[in-house]
């Protein structure tokens, strides 16, 4: 149980295009999901908290118009990188809170590697 | 505010020997602490968590961690390393105000044959 999937796992796009990444909790409902960004050889950086049915909460320094988050259902959150540029290339990981282990446990997706050319 | 510090950026061990990954925490109240593992180009997998129950926590794949309040530590150990343990390990603390996680910088484990 407590499986989180992400799609796509890999995406390559041209500069200026938008990319949508999906995060799904497969076997539990997640009212809260989190989006992280990870640079090579570094730890995870929280970008935003995604709450079902309400606006996402962004961390300081994260552009909300650049990284659009939609949490339309209890099992799906999406991150859209708008007008992507090479500096947006990174590993994006989502997590979903809850499942059987309660609110303090987050289950992570496998990540999406984005390369912007 | 809560934070964790991983004391070793890289640990190298021989297969079959013990592994010790060190983590110290800072928290104004009794924390909940986690260890996650990340294999290359993969997401994070929960190894174990401490939530104010037993101070010695057993996790998956033979890992365990001990919460020591007097030392503000939550070190991760495994008695016998396997090649498949080569990965990045993160010590994590959670804020109960907003359930946000704070990650340590990570420890890279390499296992020599």
Briefly summarize what is shown.
Chain A is 0% helix and 52% strand. Chain A is mainly beta and 117 residues long.
Number of helical segments with 4 or more residues of chain A: 0
What is the string of SSEs of chain B from the N terminus onward? Answer: EEEEEEEEEEEE
Shape annotation of chain A = globular
Order of helices and strands of chain A: EEEEEEEEEEE
- Report low-confidence residues of chain B grouped into runs of 5 or more: none
How large is the share of residues in beta strands of chain B? over 45%
Largest sheet report of chain B: 6 strands, mixed
The strand count of chain B comes to 12
Which structural category do the helix and sheet elements of chain B fall into? mainly beta
- Report strand % of chain A: over 45%
The whole-angstrom Rg of chain A is 13 Å
User: Count of DSSP E strands of chain A?
Assistant: 11
The coarse silhouette of chain B is: globular
Structure, described:
- The complex is a heterodimer of chains A (117) and B (113).
- Chain A has 117 residues and is mainly beta.
- Chain A is 0% helix and 52% strand.
- Chain A has strands at 4-7, 10-13, 19-25, 32-38, 44-51, 57-58, 67-73, 76-81, 90-97, 106-108, 112-116.
- In chain A, strand 9 and strand 10 form a beta hairpin.
- Chain A is globular.
- In chain A, 34% of the residues are buried.
- Chain B contains no helices and twelve strands.
- Chain A binds chain B through residues 4, 6, 32, 34, 42-44, 46, 49, 91, 93, 95, 97, 101, 103-111, 113, and chain B through 32, 34, 36, 41-46, 49, 51, 90, 94, 96, 98-101, 103-106.
Summary tags:
heterodimer, A: 117 residues, mainly beta, four-stranded antiparallel sheet, 11 strands, B: 113 residues, six-stranded mixed sheet, globular
Question: Could you give the topology of this structure?
Answer:
The complex is a heterodimer of chains A (117) and B (113).
Chain A: E1 4-7, E2 10-13, E3 19-25, E4 32-38, E5 44-51, E6 57-58, E7 67-73, E8 76-81, E9 90-97, E10 106-108, E11 112-116
Parallel strand pairs in A: 2-11
Antiparallel strand pairs in A: 1-3, 3-8, 4-5, 4-9, 5-6, 7-8, 9-10, 9-11
Chain B: E1 3-6, E2 10-14, E3 19-21, E4 23-26, E5 33-38, E6 44-50, E7 56-58, E8 64-68, E9 73-78, E10 87-94, E11 101-103, E12 107-112
Parallel strand pairs in B: 2-12
Antiparallel strand pairs in B: 1-4, 3-9, 5-6, 5-10, 7-8, 8-9, 10-11, 10-12
């Amino acid at each position: 149980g407590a499986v989180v999937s992400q799609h796509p796992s890999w995406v390559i796009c041209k500069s200026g295009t938008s990319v949508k990444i999906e995060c799904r909790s497969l076997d539990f409902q997640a009212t809260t999901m989190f989006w992280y960004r990870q640079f090579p050889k570094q730890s995870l950086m929280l970008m935003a908290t995604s709450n079902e049915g309400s606006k996402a909460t962004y961390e300081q320094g994260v552009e909300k118009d650049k990284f659009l988050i939609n949490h339309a259902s209890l099992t799906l959150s999406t991150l859209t990188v708008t007008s992507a540029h090479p500096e947006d290339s990174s590993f994006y990981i989502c997590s979903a809170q809850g499942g059987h282990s309660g609110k303090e446990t987050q289950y992570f997706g496998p990540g999406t590697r984005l390369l912007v050319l | 505010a809560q934070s964790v510090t991983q004391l070793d950026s890289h640990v190298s061990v021989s297969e079959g020997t013990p592994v010790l990954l060190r983590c110290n925490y800072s928290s104004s109240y009794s924390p909940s602490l986690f260890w996650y593992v990340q294999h290359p180009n993969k997401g994070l997998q929960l190894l174990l968590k401490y939530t104010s129950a037993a101070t010695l926590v057993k996790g998956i794949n033979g890992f365990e961690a001990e919460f020591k309040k007097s030392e503000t530590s939550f070190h991760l150990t495994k008695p016998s390393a396997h090649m498949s343990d080569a990965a990045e390990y993160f010590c994590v603390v959670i804020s109960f105000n907003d359930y946000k996680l704070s990650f340590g910088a990570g420890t890279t484990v390499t296992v020599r044959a």
